[in-house]
């Protein structure tokens, strides 16, 4: 009876360990997305182009959260999963850090590369390297 119990516990632990190992989080998904060469550059380009379209829409006073924008965002998320959301959030965080550094008078590699004047599109091209 004890052997059956220990065997059951051992199998259960082994099964759960494999499950936990597979769930390595968003960082692992992002790494997998970047490492898969056939998928990563296409998804990265889609995300970069989406960001540039959002900027253009903002400049042109286009409708925010339009059906077209939401459909494109959904297509990117369906293609890349949560990695796309993580990556876009990471880009937004980098942009916020850049703005904060500039407001506080700290030089950044982006300001050194672009000089005193830059457009939002140039900043995205500098920050989002594909």
Write the layout of secondary structure elements.
Layout: H1 2-22, H2 26-35, H3 37-59, H4 67-80, H5 82-103, H6 109-114, H7 120-127
Helix pairs in contact: 2-5, 3-4, 3-7, 4-5
Describe this structure as you would to a colleague:
With 130 residues, the chain is an all-alpha fold. The protein has one domain. The protein contains seven helices and no strands. The protein is globular, with a radius of gyration of 21 Å. The model has no long low-confidence stretch (mean pLDDT 75).
Task: Please state the average pLDDT score.
Answer: 75
Share of residues in helices? over 70%
Proportion of beta-strand residues: under 5%
Query: What gross morphology would you assign?
Result: globular
In total, the number of strands is: 0
Radius of gyration: 21 Å
Reported for the largest beta sheet, the result is: none
Terminal CA distance: 59 Å
Number of domains: 1
The arrangement of helices and strands along the chain is: HHHHHHH
Count of helical regions: 7
Please identify the structural class as seen in this structure: mainly alpha
**Uncertain residue segments:** none
Short description:
The chain is an all-alpha fold and 130 residues long. Helices cover 80% and strands 0% of the residues.
Tags for this model:
130 residues; 7 helices
